[in-house]
Write a structure and sequence with these properties.
CATH topology of the largest domain: Hsp33 domain
Shape: globular
Distance between the termini: 52 Å
Number of domains: 2
CATH superfamily of the largest domain: Hsp33 domain
Oligomer: single chain
Strand content: 25-35%
Mean pLDDT: 95
Number of helices: 10
Radius of gyration: 21 Å
Strand order of the largest sheet: 7-6-3-4-5-11
Number of strands: 13
CATH architecture of the largest domain: 3-Layer(bab) Sandwich
């Protein structure tokens, strides 16, 4: 199944929902970063969430950065998404390997840590980006985002994210959804929605069973007469380039560049997001130094 998400709203415009299937994207991220199962689940959930939140933005050039920074061994996970369905991600420690929890689930919460910050940065092309923050609640990512929407954006939301790992440590199924209630929802409808959400199977299980986002929408919220308003393909894609790396090197300043030339005579820079390597010989570094001057 191709990775994509749908945006839907009910007839009364009181519930909106985003549902994504991200199995291929998360498997590609696992391969690039060579992550352990726990790290794969943590990075996959973050990539899925940021892809959904990116599409929530309206401007063609809008960008969203999602960062989890906790006291667990993963330390930091960062992902960047745009409104067109393109996302990239980075995990500080891809080798984290913790024992399974008592229920047999991967221990993402302790891998990230419960003491830390969730930061959401929305760059809407204005002078300053919007920055929202909230404290981590469980480190499990979905619960932390639910808390973020409630405390930082005052938007009641249900966030569900899941990554199912196969026996060969590849990604068997991955996806997520964000359900948000709008101000005009009735108490009766809200109570029914809460009841439904409590009984929904894990999103990764639904996707592993072959359900599409449209199927999941019908199975979970079908009684609310939801209408799909948008369908967006999701892709893991890094926008790094040698030109961008050159600008980064120039920004180091004359002294730093001079030290690199004198000590090493060359430089190899790796992109954190896609592990692409960019090599610069002495002549190229000297050219960058002249440009820095």
């Amino acid at each position: 199944m191709k990775d994509y998400l749908i945006r839907a709203i009910d007839e009364e415009r009181s519930i909106r929902v985003f549902i994504a299937t991200t199995t291929n994207m998360v498997e590609e991220a696992r391969r690039i970063h060579n992550t352990t199962p726990t790290a794969t689940a943590a990075l996959g959930r973050t990539l899925t969430a940021s892809s959904i939140m990116g599409v929530m933005m309206k401007g063609d050039k809008d960008k969203l950065t999602l960062r989890f920074k906790g006291n667990g061994p993963i330390r930091t996970i960062l992902s960047v998404a745009d409104s067109q369905g393109t996302v990239k991600g980075y995990i500080a420690n891809p080798n984290v390997d913790l024992p399974l929890k008592a229920n047999g689930k991967l221990d993402v919460g302790n891998a990230i840590g419960k003491d830390g910050q969730l930061t959401v940065i929305r760059d809407l092309g204005l002078k300053k980006p919007y920055v929202g923050q909230s404290s981590l609640v469980t480190g499990e990512i979905a619960e932390d985002l639910t808390n973020y929407f409630a405390t930082s954006e005052q938007q009641p939301s249900v966030v569900a994210l899941g990554v199912l790992i196969d026996r060969d440590i590849s990604v068997k199924a991955s996806g997520g959804y964000i359900i948000q209630v709008l101000p005009n929802i009735s108490e009766e409808k809200l109570s029914r929605l809460e009841e439904i959400v409590k009984g929904v199977k894990p999103i990764s299980t639904l996707i592993d069973n072959g359900l599409t986002p449209e199927d999941i929408l019908e199975e979970t919220l079908g009684e609310f007469e939801m209408e799909v308003k948008e369908k967006v393909d999701i892709n893991l894609e890094c926008d790094c380039s040698k030109e961008k790396i050159e600008r980064a090197l120039i920004s180091l300043g004359e002294k730093e560049l001079t030290d690199i030339i004198n000590e090493d005579g060359k430089a190899e820079i790796s992109c954190h997001f896609c592990n692409s390597k960019y090599n610069f010989n002495k002549e190229e570094l000297e050219d960058l130094l002249n440009r820095a001057k």
